[in-house]
Amino acid sequence: MRALGLVLVALSLNLLVVAAVSEREYPTKSDVKQWVDPATPDSAQQITTSRGETWELVMSDEFNTANRSFRPGDDHLWTSIEKPDGVNGALEVYSHNMTSTKCDDDGTCYLYIKAVDEVSKLTVYNAYLSPARYQNVTFYYRAGMVQSWNKFCYQGGLIEVRAQLPGAVSKESGNPDISLSKSGRVASSSYYPTWPGIWMMGNLGRAIFSASTSRMWPFSYNKCEPDVFDPRNQRISACDDDPGYGLNKNQGRGAPEIDILEGGGVAISSSLQIAPGMPSDFRLYPAQEDYDSANMYCVYKYDCKTPGANYVDVPTAYYEKKRGHKSWYQGLRYAANNFCEPSEDEIQDVDTIKASLEAGITDNVCNVDTCPASSDANSDLALIDGVGPDYWGINSNGTCFPVMNSYMGAYLCDPDNTDELCPEPRNSSTPKTEIMEPFGYQMDAVSANWPVHLGAYTDYFVYQVEWVTGTNGYVRWMGAGQPLFEVTADAFSVVPQNANKTNPQKLMLEEPMSIVFNVALSRSWGATPPNPGSECRGDGTNETVNKICDDFPLYLKIDYIRVYQDPKGNRGDDDYMQLGCDPGSHPTKQWIEGHIDEYEDSDNLWMEVTGRAFCESDDDCTISNNGAQKLVTGKCVKSRCVCSHPDSWGGPRCTLALAEDSSSTSVSMTQRTYGPPMAISLSVAIVTLLSTVIAAWMSVRTLKRQAEAAILAAEQKKLEQVRPSFPTRVNISIDEYDTPQPKDNYSQNFL
After folding, report:
1. What is its main location (predicted)?
2. Domain around 151
């Protein structure tokens, strides 16, 4: 008996040690990965990167099951939004019922986001009115947004999305482009009235919840340099010795953005959005009334008469004389969309362009013989990937070519800001609202607009972004494996400077990013619906407009999404390659929990989902026991994982051993979990094994009863504990959404 007592004491000590361990992910019995869809074909389990490395699949969703619900609590990966869009002159309300999955008769299955012309009148709170107040707003469209926010995030990797963009392309639409082949260049912009987006944002911000993004979006800045940038403008600053909420001290944080694609019409925008942005004397010159009073938006058509207002550092001598230093980001890389039909008039020769740049561009405009095809005079002109045969920035085939976006960012301000750089500075006669913390800062959009072929609207096309963090990092955009645009870390760290060195150096983006799909409509973007700011058909007398409006609903379709990472994981001190929304390098969990009201409203509650990953057998939903006593942590029920003990075992496949809640003060594993946690399960298994040797002292049945008693005691103990004030894990059935939900008055997070 003394020997057995020593064993039990050792096991008890083991429980105390394990109690200090955080959440841990265990492999599944079938070896399917936590976030990988079992339906992903074997041929897609690995990919070769642009640098020749082999990366492995770490996340996928093939959308092969019809009628999925993405309402809060229903899906392991995605959450739909029920909320009016309050940014960029938006015309749509996002709704849960505008997105689901569908399978066509030919067997193609996909996630869809639907946009319909439907009028909604809502009362919203506008913090930027003076005084801030509720206002009645009419939205003329209803569409959808789906997010992986706070569920699936990644740092570094290759993301691949096969998608079909929304457009009025039916035979009845009257769209003249549909007579073209799939490689024909889209030309009739009015037939592509929506603004689809496939993008990522740092998990510290939640898309269209503006309270969460204020002074957070789109920072990628980790310096404490008050003489260069006022740290009060960055909510989590590197100047903060004690930021709290589990954050790392003196680490600048934010919610930067990577747009895989954004926009519609004749061109797609691929961009990074970061802050702090470059000061005015490193930016494109604005149009001046003395030259362009009748055409102040000439910058978007590259036809300004104002010197230096069409392209950065063009004319060369003008910029050199006025500034004495380079402007904007250097060495950006552009390459052709070769899926477009070529045009002989656009073919370039690299030697001609290099000679023009060396001599200096004298005109206020670019042409095919004077500037790189991107119209970026500071772009990289080296051989693509060092091997060619094509050069960055040179349209050697005459196909569609990305152009540097004229939209370079915005100056963001609180409503009380009087800075003349603000879009609407407060005048001296207007009283302060004092509704939010003061701020005023420039954000930058580093962006390329690439002309698109008709096949992007009539068929599926593969969009890819390859992202590596750190000093040697980069972001590369690709179409079906062919490069389109690339930004290297040097573009952010080796920036042009003036004598006072006032241009802040940023980081290559390194925040854990969540993924967003959405379809928006706006009165102010390059692609707008008919009669923007009113109902689609207007007075109904324009037959062309009526045909476009009759083509609604329009659909963004996602055939699949896949994410790949280097199997070696993190590859250096700043070269992160990992999954998770709350990594130790960039924590987010406690911050979000401590500010949860900024990330949710009554229609969009944060609900962490346990289980629900797609499965083919029970082995996809339970841990591998490696020969120990069998422990079933979950089962496959109707092709979705259901966790057997959801308060002890979570994650999409029930293989995540859950840690103690931060509010708990208990000291043993049995006191802080329901169900059999990993420590108890393994310990009981060990004791059971020993009992075969010391059967004279104790039977297996006795041990089992003791373990069960400990588990039941833990359940009772946890029920008696005071719950934290912020939401924790919520397990919800899809059927629970049959009851009506309260409508939010959108008193927060609209503008």
Report:
1. membrane
2. 56-206+254-265+452-469+509-587
